[in-house]
Amino acid sequence: MHELFAGHFIDINLASALQVVLLGFIGGILSGFIGSGGAFFMTPGMMNLGVDGVIAVASNITHKFGKALVGSRKHAAAGNVDKKLAAFMLTTAIIGVQIAVWINSYFKSGGDGHGADKGAGANLYISLVFAIILSAVAISMLRDILKSKGNGEAGAGPSMKIAEYLSRLNLPPVVHFRVADTKVSLWVLMAVGIATGYLAGTIGVGGFIGVPAMIYVFGVPTAVATGTELFLAVFMGGYGALSYAYLGYVDLRLTMLLYLGSLIGIHLGVYGVKVVNEKYIRMVTSLIILLCVFSRVIAIPVYLRQLGYLNMDAGWDAYFNMSSKFFLFASGISGALVILMQVVRAYRQRRQIQKTLLVTRKPGLTSTESAKAA
Amino acid sequence: MTIVMISSMFQSGREELAQALARKTGWPVLCREELVDEARKLGIKIGRLEVAMIKTPGLSEKLVREKELYLAFLTATLCEKAGQGNLIYHGRAGHLLLPGVSHRLRVGLTAPQEIRIKRTAQALNLTPDKAETYLAQLDEDVGKWIRYMHRVDGRDPNQFDLFFNLENMGLSNAAGILCATAELPDFQATPASLKMLNDLNLSAQAKLRLALDERTLQADLQVHADNGVITVTYPPEQDRASQYIPQVLAELPGCREIQCTMAETNILWVQERFEPESENFGQIIRLAQRWGAAVELMRLLPPGELPGETEAHGSNPDYGYARQECALAADGGVQDDDPQAVTDDGGLGRTEEELVDLGRFGGRHTVCGGYDQILEQVQGSGRYSLVVIGDMFMSKGHQARTRQTRELALNIRDRLKAPVITADELKSRLLFGKRQTATLLGYLALIVAIYALVFTNQKPIMDFLGGPLHQNFKIVAGVAVALFSPLIAYVYGNVTGLTLKIINVD
Predict the structure, then answer these.
(1) A5 — contact with chain B (CB < 8 Å)?
(2) Is A179 helix (H, G, I), strand (E, B) or coil?
(3) Distance between CA A374 and CA B8 in Å, rounded?
(4) Does A315 contact B at CB distance below 8 Å?
């Protein structure tokens, strides 16, 4: 057992410190490559090391705040942040978060949505929402990829059917977002903002929902959706970090160790996005999400048994929980490994390419080809 | 020889104005609809392209290729017709076609909304209300189309030479003014403008051939032409297609040399004079080698910097406002065999040779004017990962030069939607030198000190953050965490960023 600091902070030795750095590294790669915060992987990972659920969430949100602040500055410099859209999303998302809190309170939970086992009813509810919503996102992404393959379009972009349909509805008042170059009905904005906030408050994955919602429903370009979501994360993360730190739940050491791994991982993930083709990125993302969903689905029988809906030996809980954790870690680690492999491959290819020059003078005559080292 | 390009929104009278002008001049008329029909016969999916561009903010690679193919077809057809003599063209964005050709007269046209509604209602058999809604939607869609196709606002007055409002002017009078304007020397062909037309034609013909040949149609190629030299850059993964490029372009009339460069991306380097021995050249080459990029050269001659300025001042009272020709390109594309007669090309030739030797050449242009002219030149080709503004405004003092260079960079960045940096910034931001080493060491020392401080004083710090001490300093603890976390992220983020830059992972 770990010695506890101040009653609830674990003692960190070299081995546990390295494991937190590794969690940060994998979370960072996933974050840089697929655009999610990586919380779905890092928070349960820290809990697995003996960190209390609330401390894990608080330390991770503080880590996310700093990361988002630095990242959104870069995105803003590149013109990828639509502050007006972020303001609308933030206002409506707060309402959604509040609705999620009310529903969770109804289930008398206190569950944080990252795997903390505090109330079977809430856990079941959270797992079901997680499984349904993320399955829908992953399947629609896979369907897009398969469809584009069928059409022979190597780099087809995301489907815009929902955005087109909603823009045709033309429900006034319509708000124009100049940076994103899109017009969205206020009603659609409110519905999506509240839904995003509700899902972020329920299953704790804001970026996973916010970014696809902006792309598929509002028709916002991918870079602007990512930049705006990161800008939003600054406020949500800042508010979360301040609140948790005020309550005394932030373990700054964990935050710092996460930074050690994640900031290298993010660079590698972003590099991966530059060198790997878009279809591959979406395929890896959807497969990681599906594995996460599978890990949640495996845990459902345990909650059903605890609620008395399923007659199952309690001794089996440990196996279900272990399998659930296995698939969660498998999704993160295998996803990160696949991305790293691609990054290394692209890096080596780039080094090997050097350059080729092919000059043909007076067409019709023999072409000369020469390759030189860089 | 003049090319009149008339642009307007739907039912604003552009066809009538074109016909009225044709009756006065006897010049042939070509309209967008004819070109679209011809493009469709060639297999270009205009309808799909229009729907996708208007409705979808992001486009797939295939549609981007379709867009470039369509633009190449329009350019090639217009160049061919314009090469035969005077021409009147009318369309929704004709004024943005044939960029850089100074003997085209770009005409805009607008008509009162009520007349447009009335005409639309009659033409489409709609009620006035429905016609109004239809026109509003169509105008918005066409605006989006123009912005996507040409990356500029179609209504930007800077893009026109002449603009007519038909509210108080009849078509016949407008045609009369147009006729007189087209006769002005400003809109007559010159050797430089004919060279530009030839270059555009050759590059468009090459793009068409490559896009329609099954051996190269899937390849993502960038094509430029200058004085009969076609430069094609292709990404490394399409190495196989590259062997067919010379074969596909072999019989292309007007092509005397083909240069193919493998590149993952393109860097546009804008400068007044080029020197292969200069520091800028070395830095850009280092960056190009790191990124696997091809370097496209653009020699920009700012207004007032042209050779023979004094004479021009004396002979032309409009100097500084009227269109300016490049004296350097006035050979009309004809190269003299006598080496003694070679004109001053601002070091472009030598720099090109050096880049070709290094396998980094991505094309060359010479432009007179400012950012509008740069944008005109790179329209349709501009997929740059970086635009570097090198040494510009060399005749000005240091401060004026710095300010004007910065303004130029800002204007290009706004309009081209690509990262634009000056040569000074290139060194400090993208390359690793002594300054970056010092920054890295400074941040590294700071981050080591912070981590050592926290991990050697865990107990008091954790007491402050969540232990007994925390109860007395809740707000201070909250603020401290909120300030400390981004500080670590910033300092350590710089350390990781610079370290990865050393090993070329950026």
Answers:
(1) yes
(2) coil
(3) 51
(4) no
**Based on the structure, what is the number of domains in chain A?**
1
Residue linked to tokens 């399955």: A135
- Closest alpha carbon within chain B to A270: B506
Residue A374 lies in a domain: no
Across B208-212, B376-380, B468-472, least confident range: B376-380
d(C-alpha B462, C-alpha B99), whole Å: 65
Residue A191 maps to a domain: yes
DSSP string, B374-385: HHHHHTTT--EE
The Cα–Cα gap between B461 and B475 comes to: 15
pLDDT in tens, B68-90: 888 889 999 999 998 888 999 99
Q: CA dist A155 to A126, A137, A151, A179, Å?
A: 35, 19, 11, 24
The residue ranking higher by pLDDT, A88 or A114, is A88
Query: How does residue A351 score in pLDDT terms, banded at 50, 70 and 90?
Result: low
* Lowest-pLDDT choice from A218-222, A226-230, A365-369: A365-369
The residue that leads in pLDDT, B187 or A110, is B187
Confidence at residue A284, expressed as pLDDT on a 0 to 100 scale: 80
What pLDDT was estimated at residue A150? 52
Rounded to whole angstroms, the Cα distance separating A41 from A66 reads: 18
Given a contact cutoff of 8 angstroms between Cβ atoms, the answer to whether A32 and A230 are in contact is no
Interface of A with B in 46-85 (CB under 8 A): 62-63, 65-67, 69-70, 78-79
Instruction: Kindly state the average pLDDT of the residues B308-337.
Output: 42
Q: Does residue A359 form part of some domain?
A: no
pLDDT category, B236, cuts 50, 70, 90? low
Chain B: nearest CA to A341, how far in angstroms? 14
Q: Enumerate the residues of chain B whose CB falls inside 8 A of the CB of residue A265.
A: none
β-pairing, B293-301 with B361-368?
Answer: parallel
Identity of the residue numbered A286: S
| pTM, entire model | 0.60
Is the Cβ of A349 closer than 8 Å to some Cβ of chain B?
A: yes
Look at residue A371 and tell me if it is in a domain. no
Among the listed residues A117, A129, A131, A61, the one whose alpha carbon sits nearest the alpha carbon of residue A289: A131
User: A72 lies in which domain range?
Assistant: 4-354
CA B187 vs CA A124, B1, B161, B194: distances in Å: 75, 8, 10, 12
pLDDT band at A12 (very low <50, low <70, confident <90, very high): confident
Contact (CB<8Å) A160/B56: yes
Instruction: Using the CB atoms, write b or e for B419-444: b if 16+ within 10 Å.
Output: bbbbbeebbeebbbeeebeeebeebb
Phi, psi values for residue B285, rounded to 5°: -65, -40
Q: What's the CA gap between A126 and A198, in Å, rounded? A: 11
